[in-house]
Amino acid sequence: MTFLDIRGVTKRYGVTTAVDDVTLSVAAGSRTAIVGPSGSGKTTLLRLIGGFEAPDSGQMTLNGEILADGPAIVPAHRRSVGFVTQDGSLFPHLTIADNIGFGLDKRNPDRPQRILELMDMVELDTVMLGRRPHQLSGGQQQRVSLARALARQPKLMLLDEPFSALDTGLRENMRKAVAAVLKQAGITTILVTHDQAEALSFADQVAVMRQGKLVQAGSPRTLYLNPADRTTASFLGDAILLPAELGDGWIDCVFGRLSSATNKRRGTAEIMLRPEQLKLVAVPEKDATAAPDSNIGYGKVIDIEFGGAVCTVALAIVGNHGTRHGQTTSPVQIKCSAVNLPATGDHVRIEVLGEPHIFA
Amino acid sequence: MLSTGSINGADPDADVARFLKARRRLPSLSVFGFAGIVAFFSLLPLGFVIWVTMQTGWDAVVALVFRARVGELLVNTVLLEVWTIPLSIILAVSLAWLTERTDLPGARLWAWLAVAPLAVPAFVHSYAWISIAPSLHGLFGGVLVSVLAYFPFLYLPVAAQMRRVDPAMEDVGASLGLGPWRVFFRVLLPQLRLAICGGSLLIGLHLLAEYGLFVMIRFDTFATAIVDQFQSTFNGPAANMLAGVLVLCCAGLLALEALIRGNERYARVGSGSARPATRHRLGWLALPCLLIPLITTALALGVPFVTLGRWLIAGGTAVWDLGAIGTAFGTTVLLAIAGALLATVAAIPMAWLSVRAPGRIQRALEACHYYVGSLPGVVVALALVTITVRAVLPLYQTAATLLLAYGLLFLPRALVGLRASIAQAPVELERAAMALGRTPAQAVTRITMRLAAPGAAASIALVALGITNELTATLMLAPNGTRTLATEFWSLTSEIDYVAAAPYALMMVVLSLPLTLLLHAQSKRIIGR
């Protein structure tokens, strides 16, 4: 069920179009991540959803109610939208308790109780109630910021890169904690981030933005394995992009003949493989060189860059697959695990797990 | 041999550490000495007030302080403060919001025009108003002219702070259900508290210290009463006791400000740079909003300039007695530069200590440096008159005493700019210089002072601006025959020769204008760091 519906929203600043004809629907109770490089318009889109900016054109509805119809908008304070910024934006002149209770009516007798509940919800120690924002660590500040945004039980939670100011270790913990809190509260959430790993692990739906345009939206899995174009493919993770020839249920590329649902497509196309789809198996040299036209791909390891968990192996393709697909001189760089790492000079068989993705 | 060896060589590391510590302390010690000397001079006026109170004797003090006249002056002072400061706050905050946070047409121009009234000395403001409305007097007149002359002291810090407040906080406020007005009062305004407190204190102290403005507008304050007493009885206990009450008023203001300000932190929490604020759309409100800066500029700049223009035209070329004006101009510039250099040089040790050697002694010394700037010129002048007459008569009514008064009055101005710029010269550079064979003193003078030079130049300019427009202390301390622009202007207006006074007023404005613009640019740059 569509909860937030964004249709054809455009926002310009002078000559630059920050958000260009974006259409996106968000299901109730789901988590959506808007991801893109800096300057892609993702923060502007978030600010449009929050009501901090008015679009030049397009419509937005939340739960059937119109939020924006062109430049006519419902202002932010009437939207029931929670907002957590990159550094928390806690009010420095207020205590933690007053920050969390900022959106609650001061005359409400339940206010102190509600503040305690919220602190409990985000797992903050109540000794911090009387402290000031600057006395808290970055992670604690973000928890306070989240509690403050939850206080008014918003229908929609907007997270503007809330983890990017935190240390790497803390970032992951916070992401999980925030996801859990929001899931428990059943609040529809939109996260803006430039970190693809964060987007993929946090969200049910990922929307990729580039130069103001929404390039692709879908489940993290779909986007990762079947990206719309090569830029998206590379943005979401390491990608091996290869030219290939399509046949009936198979694909020919430098890694040999791979089985793939090609449907009715024939001729040449570009395909993508994720590095973790490749497996290198050491074989004797004569196996690799015996049948240059076989459907199995072979290679020779010419260099290894040891990098701990992920190592890079430079591979020269053996046999005719290489020449046929223009991979004669430059070696293929393959990332693989440090376990069972071949040695330089070894010959290997290249095995491909899963299907390659064929670009349209 | 064995024993000496064991004593000296027991712990060679400790010896080295002691040696290094002694070397490190050495420059600090001498700097502490210099700062201590400056602090001693700063304490002279306060010491004078205490000494004179004890000399007068308790009964006489009670008779001089608890009388109707003092009560009257106190009521006047309180009324003046409680009207002027809130009105200035409202005006300054509105202007700052309009120029910094809205799409008001010509916002940048209005921002400059909101600072420009500082270039017109307060007593020239009242001269202009008296020329236009001769019947203007009393509390109403005093408040009107004070607000117009002093509101930039609030506008500058408030506008600067508004630029610095993270606009994301206002977004958060809106997302928590606050409408634009409530966001302003509950989110933005509390963050301006420090700026408002600081600016209000500055205005409050100016109101206590100002003499010329209130004499012209015929409104009695402690400063005018003290100068009256001084001129009639020279150095009588009455004037001294009034000075004592005035010092208490200053202390009261300082304490009140400290109380209201509290010790909360208002800096933005979090890292990274804030997004620039989006300006509010005024829409059809732009026109009525435009009236605020328009009327303010008309009253605070239009009135002085139109009046000056009128008197100048009325006077024609006849009033331009180039000899007299030239002499006064030259004397003013000379005194301003000498005084500014003195104040800045005197502030260097303290500024260096504040940045490099913070601690309890440093804080005490710094407090001495700052408090003296909050004393009215009339108190400092009275103290120096008494001290020179009683202790070092040859120095009485000499340029040296006058410069000392300037140095004391404007010490905080010099200190603020210097401290900020020394703080920007990292101590690592000094250490690098010492590692390359420079002595600590050389490292400070060649590296830190060189890097702090722009800040020092700004300090000199600000002090010079203050001295150019200083009237009270100059009137009381200047050697006989010394004529500055301010004193000449003052004696001519006292003779109701407004036409002849106009060129002097113009010269003061011309001297002050570039310095005021510098002040504005500087406040923008400090924020933009």
From TrEMBL, chain A:
Superkingdom to which the source organism belongs: Bacteria
Q: Where is the ABC transporter domain?
A: 4-236
GO cellular component terms listed in the entry, alphabetical order? membrane
Family matches, as InterPro entries: AAA+_ATPase (IPR003593), ABC_SmlMolc_Importer (IPR050093), ABC_transporter-like_ATP-bd (IPR003439), ABC_transporter-like_CS (IPR017871), ABC_transpr_FbpC (IPR015853), P-loop_NTPase (IPR027417)
Q: Does the keyword Cell membrane apply?
A: yes
- Pfam entry (one): ABC_tran
State the signal peptide span: none
GO terms classed as biological process? quaternary ammonium group transport
Q: Which UniProt keywords apply?
A: ATP-binding, Cell membrane, Ion transport, Iron, Iron transport, Membrane, Nucleotide-binding, Transport
**GO MF annotation, one:** ABC-type ferric iron transporter activity
- Check the record and name the CDD domains matching this protein: ABC_Carb_Solutes_like
Q: Which SMART domains match?
A: AAA
Q: Which Gene3D superfamilies match?
A: 2.40.50.450, P-loop containing nucleotide triphosphate hydrolases
Q: Which family does it belong to?
A: Belongs to the ABC transporter superfamily.
Spell out the protein name for this chain.
Answer: Iron(III) transport system ATP-binding protein
